[in-house]
Amino acid sequence: MIVAAFLLIVALMVGVIHWYLWRRLVRDTTRPGPWRRAGTVLIVVLALLAPTTVIAGRTLPMAQQRVLAWPGYLWLSVMFLAFSILLVLELPRLALRPWVRGARRDVAEPAPALVGADQSTATPQPGTVEPATPDLPDPSRRLLLARSAAIVAGLTAVGTTAVGTHTALSAPRVARQQISLRKLPRSMDGFRIAVVSDIHLGPLLGRGHTQRIVDIINRLDADLVTVVGDLVDGTVAELGSAAQPLAGLRSRRGSFFVTGNHEYFSGFQEWIPEVESFGLTVLRNQRVEIDGLDLAGVNDVTGGNYGDGPDYERALSGRDPAKPVVLMAHQPIQVTDAQKHGVDLQLSGHTHGGQIFPFSYLVRLQQPVISGYARFGDTQLYVTRGAGFWGPPVRVGAPPDVTLIELRAE
Question: In the chain, how long is the greatest CA-to-CA distance?
């Protein structure tokens, strides 16, 4: 039911957006004829391609998903960006409306003709002026304005998508963050934690993507590696080999994993033992003691729909309050519960840093932090932008990253 409702909402949104794009990019820029008909057909095809691509990601085998993924997801990016740009351009369109209508004209009103007078020789009486005729849109000016807006929106959307695709497919950057923990023992000052999230193996990201991330993390020479959910978008049978390079992760105190929402969409029952087979410890509402701190992990909130939700009491109760606790939780919004349970630091992902500006503003409606560091009372939160992408292979204003956190004793 949840998936069906999600797909219905997506279909409605896509339909409205394509109707608007048709008005601005086709109807307003063409005269009735073959070009308008061709543009209409193209918009209809693209409108069907968008939801088909999303549905294929839920239903078709991975090999068939790849056929639709590149054109479908790239168009979703162009569609969203063009829609956003055209909405912004509505303001100058309104401002230029007087120019489109052209100049007003005052026309002299002829004097009433005398009965029986020669109408061909009648002359208007001086001093009588006909009220100004209503302004009529100038077709050539209206067409020029519409085509100009369409060109600006189209070129900007396509160019931004091209740059964003290059960014998304590039190697993740290394972000570095120092975080002080009041309870951290002096002996652990400088303890380093590598944080990666949202790798999103799927139809467009495979084994090479995983190996590149593993190589980046290993070069950081971290004490601890944390993989904070959303590793996969597919089954173990389809993506197990793509995830296998995780077995090569190196750190002094081990590598740990918690579920993200996409693990539940992809068969978490199979993925948990698969991830453990790579040598990672999966923390399912559990904690472990590492030197002078506790490392805890809770399931993603989506797990509640699958009978496998987060349990903070199980993960955090009965611990030594003198030790700091670092919590792995996929979604930043989980910091609310973390704060209630006295967590010192929460590590999260999920947001992708917004992935495509200005879509980040919608993410802010769901999550308290989009990326980076924040503080909620005594609980600190760090949100990585993630190393992969979901949907369009595009990142605008939110490059992928792997974070190295250095803990400092206060």
Answer: 116
